[in-house]
Specification:
This protein is an alpha/beta fold and 338 residues long. The protein has 15 helices and nine strands.
Length: 338
């Protein structure tokens, strides 16, 4: 993971901060929505750094230092990302760490209290499995899914770019509540992964609702191509591909010397192949279903609506779920606000 520094950018004597944020959840479709919105002529989102993670104040562990793309901790370097957007009506960025981070909402509110917030939720079991499959494909994870869940859940160290947070990133209720409390319901727009699927299938009204929320013209709607889904599942081409992709030296070279688009092309062309995702281990599904059911109920209470779209994978959970529900939450997770 690389950190960027730099000089100051100001507009008319005042700093130009984004006025909307796609804050997560991770693996819920933030990259696809970012790609769609960037096509609108009145919307500016940085091209080179889609996820600056500035307000999450990322502090990667030594082991994960090179396991993720660029993050930005320098205020001036962050503001410089948006210099080219000063003539646009909507200026935004998309960092999925902001939904998980306990401090990010207040930090955003301190500089952009009128900002609009977009949250995308996904069935937390599907989200965790998609997250694991990405880590496995990229050589950052080597354990089977159930064992990886247990190892990460009981890890004494927790944090973005510190642990995987397979379970914690799906604890949505308090994450959502923090944004609702600070920004108000009228400035928080909640989508679901199912909504992104419908956008990819041509749901123009769903996209129009997002544009209206951002207060931009819906006229250019027809020219926005939503047919491509970003970050869809792909399997590693071979074990050598996983090992190289996960090596610190390869990550360092890629992040330091290879332009993002070229790196993505090389990875997609030579390191992965099209393939359906493997079936989920039933032990993992049942354990996660028990962990997440109380959380989903809390989200339903918070949003005052029934949310079957958060229970796709858990609908088939078996008899082992009640036993899994008795798992004690680690102290580190409690410290993170759960």
């Amino acid at each position: 993971m690389n950190r960027i520094g730099g000089s100051e950018f100001r507009r008319g004597g005042s700093e130009l901060w984004p006025n909307f944020f796609i804050v997560g959840a991770a693996k819920a479709g933030t990259t696809s929505l970012y790609a769609y919105l960037r096509q609108h002529p009145d919307i500016f989102m940085p091209e080179d750094v889609k996820e600056p993670h500035y307000f999450a104040e990322v502090r990667p562990s030594r082991a994960q230092r090179y396991a993720s793309p660029v993050y930005i901790s320098d205020r001036d370097a962050y503001l410089r990302l948006f210099r080219a957007g000063k003539t646009h009506r909507a200026i935004g960025e998309a960092s999925p760490s902001y939904l998980w981070s306990e401090a990010a909402p207040a930090r955003i509110h301190a500089v952009a209290p009128e900002a609009r917030i977009i949250i995308i939720l996904r069935d937390p079991i599907e989200r965790a499995y998609s997250h694991y499959l990405m880590d496995f494909r990229e050589g950052a994870q080597h354990l089977p899914f159930f064992e990886a869940l247990q190892a990460d859940w009981h890890s004494p160290e927790k944090g973005w770019a510190v642990s995987n947070l397979y379970v914690e990133l799906g604890f949505y209720a308090r994450q959502i509540e923090r944004y609702l409390r600070l920004f108000g319901e009228e400035r928080v727009h909640i989508l679901f992964h199912d909504d992104l699927r419908r956008l990819a299938q041509g749901d123009r009204e769903g996209l129009a609702a997002i544009l209206r929320f951002l207060d931009v013209d819906v006229g250019p709607l027809a020219r926005i191509d939503t047919s491509r889904v970003e970050n869809g599942f792909a399997a590693p081409r071979a074990e050598w591909a996983r090992r190289i992709a996960g090596a610190h030296w390869a990550r360092w070279i890629g992040n330091t010397f290879v332009p993002h688009r070229l790196g993505a092309f090389i990875f997609n062309r030579f390191f992965v192949k099209a393939s359906p995702p493997p079936p989920m281990d039933p032990r993992a599904r049942d354990w996660l279903a028990a962990m997440f059911e109380p959380e989903i109920r809390a989200v339903e209470t918070l949003l005052a609506r029934h949310l079957p779209q958060l229970r796709h994978a858990g609908a088939g959970a078996g008899a082992t779920a009640p036993m899994a529900a008795a798992v004690t939450m680690p102290a580190a997770a409690i410290a993170e606000g759960r």
